[in-house]
Amino acid sequence: MPLLSWFNRDADLTRAALAPYRLLEPVAKLSHGEEDSPNMLIEGDNLEALKALLPYYGGQVKCISIDPPYNTQSAVSEHYDDNIEHSQWLSMMYPRLELLKELLAEDGSIWITLDDNEAHYFKVIADEIFQRKNFIANVIWRKNYSPKSSARHFSVDHDHLFVYAKNAEKWIPNLVPRTRYLRHDLRPFAGSRRTPC
User: Fold this and answer.
1) Cα 103 vs. chain centroid, distance in angstroms?
2) DSSP element (H, E) containing 46
3) What one-character DSSP code corresponds to residue 188?
């Protein structure tokens, strides 16, 4: 299997294992609802937060959905910089994906949204971490219906939704019934096909 190489790759391969375990400490004044509620809002570095969740939820999570930075080469705000080098982006993603994989149940899946800026780099490292045999699909979703007249080359109207299973042999999509109409032109759909959610 081909591997993607980047600056600091060797260090990134061990970053998840070397991340320290931190104890999650509840803050009573920020809590809401019942005291024994399993819900949590964690503030801090997400690498450390994922590592802290492993003792509680390792191997138990059925579905993970993440929306990582698209690396659009723009600074969105003073707190969110979406303009980093490709190698820095890969360095950020690799150890987090490793920890997310550890959180997944054997029949669990992970869903990742990205645009064309990093999607193809992501696919290569995700194939390495989750194994290519556990790749389910690259779902292309149309995010707008109007062409951008300001586009320099092409007006891009889609994003990617990568779906991986921890174990594709054990993962079964949660199917939901389709609506009566299949397409936006509202032509009636005959049949009982179902789609994964």
Assistant:
1) 13
2) helix 46-57
3) B
User: Residue 168 has which token pair?
Assistant: 């594709």
CATH fold of the domain at 9-169: Rossmann fold (3.40.50)
In single-letter form, the type of residue at position 3 comes to L
Using only C-alpha atoms, what is the Rg of the chain?
19
Q: How far is CA 174 from CA 121, 137, 170, in A?
A: 28, 15, 13
The domain segmentation of the chain, as residue ranges, is 9-169
pTM to 2 decimals? 0.79
CA distance 114 to 159: 6
Q: At what angle do helices 9-18 and 86-103 cross, to 10 degrees?
A: 30
Q: How far apart are CA 149 and CA 156, in angstroms?
A: 11
* Contacts of residue 157, Cβ cutoff 8 Å, sequence gap at least 6: 142, 143, 144, 145, 147
pLDDT in tens, 127-170: 999 999 999 999 988 776 666 666 565 656 678 999 999 999 99
8 A C-beta contact, residue 90 and residue 12: yes
What is the reported pLDDT for 197? Answer: 42
Strands 135-142 and 104-114: unpaired
